[in-house]
Amino acid sequence: MQKPKSNDPETAVPLGIRNPYIVNFMKALVEKKGEKHEPEALKKLLDDMYKLFENMLGQNMVQALPEDKRQEYLELTQDLTQVSYKKIEEIFDKYVPNYEEVMKETMKQFAAIFMKNREFNPKDYPVSDAVTD
Questions:
Q1: Which of 31, 37, 54, 96 meets the CB 3.0–4.6 Å disulfide criterion with 41?
Q2: Separation CA 75–CA 23 (nearest Å)
Q3: What value does the mean pLDDT take over residues 16-37?
Q4: Half-sphere CA count of 57, side-chain side, radius 13 A
Q5: What is the rounded CA–CA span in Å between residue 117 and residue 52?
Q6: Alpha-carbon distance 113 to 121, whole Å?
């Protein structure tokens, strides 16, 4: 397993850490849709789905910020070497008190798109083009 890029937990960048609840949500969607995949194909599908969900959630969390704090956050993220978990946590904890609702709505949005489409295609999801290219 890869190690974070920093020894300081406030600035470390996690690599490959997945939220097990989100992984189970993705698996449940695939099962509910009735799709059957070989193990390697399923692993790739779940990985692609997870990345897409993370991006959707991130975009929805940023959208949930008040306009002035959204601008502050976007400026802060222009130089990712200067961003710390502590600073991000301060912004989102203070200015997005309904983060559970944002997560729930993102899950509903993701599930609706996934179940509607015959095949999984990242271009069907409302995320920036950089994510789907």
A1: 37
A2: 31
A3: 91
A4: 17
A5: 15
A6: 10
- Greatest Cα pair distance, the chain, in angstroms, is 47
Q: At what angle do helices 20-33 and 99-116 cross, to 10 degrees?
A: 30
Domain chopping of the chain, boundaries: 20-125
Q: What is the predicted pLDDT for the residue at 129?
A: 61
pLDDT band at 24 (very low <50, low <70, confident <90, very high): very high
DSSP state letter for 77: T
Determine the distance from the C-alpha atom of residue 110 to the mean position of all C-alpha atoms in its chain, rounded to a whole number: 11
- Flag whether pLDDT at 31 surpasses 90: yes
The alpha carbon of residue 74 and the mean position of all alpha carbons in its chain are separated, in whole angstroms, by 17
Q: Which pLDDT belongs to residue 16?
A: 64
Question: Does pTM top 0.85 for this prediction?
Answer: no
Whether the CB-CB separation of 109 and 103 falls below 8 Å is answered with no
